[in-house]
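Sorry, I am new here, but would you mind making up a protein's amino acid sequence and the tokens describing how it folds?
***
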Amino acid sequence: MAGRKQFDVDEALRRAMHVFWRWGYAETSIDRLTEGTGLGRSSLYGTFGDKSTLFRKCLERYAQTYHPLYHQALSGPHPNPSAVVAAYLQVTLNRIADPTVPDGCLVTMSAAQFPALDAEGRALVRAMIDDLRAMLEQAFLAAGPDDQEAAELALCTLATNKSLAVLSRAGFSSEDLATVAAAAARIPGTPHPLP
């Protein structure tokens, strides 16, 4: 039939997501996208639009894949804030340990390249980070902390999550990453004010 796609669009999008994930937006060229997806330029543009549009579709695909895992992990009930941290970061460690995907995190990689993104891309990355932060705040509130402590713990846990992604890209071992996650899970409820 004329006009029918001769390839799996969802699989092509998954492969494009991995290209952006591995290289970041700034270093992802059309040549890398055609090589990574197996599509010609005309098929790539005709199906997904320009690079910025494809990037946003990949971000959405990433969020659809991984954010439900965080939501499930945070749905609890959790007996205390430490359990919230541990549950959240375990999802991150599981993704990092998956040999079928690139190291790190597409959202983290994209945040690190914020200036290279267009306004829509920056807004989408920020919205995804804010969504994770709100998810964490709700889980902490359900585990007992007041509003201020829940907000602080959510931000700290989110920062730890992002640092795990960066460390994994730098080749830190799974044991090192697990040590970071375990130490972060011990922090709630133990105030250590900075001097």
